[in-house]
Amino acid sequence: MRALMLILRKDLRQRLRDGTLLIYAVALPLGMAFLLNLVMGGSAQRLDARYGVVGLPAFTERVLRPMEAAGRVRLRQVASAEEGRELTGRGELDAVFAGSPGPSSVANLPPAETTDPASPGATDPVSPGTTGPASIEVIGSVDAPVAVQVARELAESYAAAERGERLALAVAGAGPRAVPELRALPEPIRVRQDASLSVRQLDTGTYHAAGTAVFFLFFAVLICVSGIFAERASGMLARIMAAPVRGPVVMAAKLLGGALTALIGMVILVVASSLLLGARWGDPAGVAALVAAVVLAATGLMAAVATFARTAEQAANWQSVAATALGIAGGAFFPVGQLGGLAVLSQASPHHWFLEGLADLRGGGSVALPVAVLLGFAAVGIPVALARLGRVARA
Amino acid sequence: MPVLEVVGLRKSYKDRLVVDGVGFAVREGETYGLLGPNGAGKTTTISMVVGVLARDAGEVRIAGRPHDTAGRATKSLIGYVPQELAVYPDLTARENLRFFAGLYGIRGSEARRRIGEVLEIVGLADRAGEAAGKYSGGMSRRLNIGIGLLNRPRLLVLDEPTAGVDPQSRTSILDSVRRLAGDGTAVLYTTHYMEEAQRLCDRVGIIDHGRMLAEGRPDELGAPDLEAAFLQLTGRELRD
Ligand SMILES: Nc1ncnc2c1ncn2[C@@H]1O[C@H](COP(=O)(O)OP(=O)(O)O)[C@@H](O)[C@H]1O
Ligand SMILES: [Mg+2]
Question: Could you tell me which residue ranges the ABC-2 type transporter transmembrane domain spans (chain A) (predicted)?
Answer without folding.
Answer: 21-385
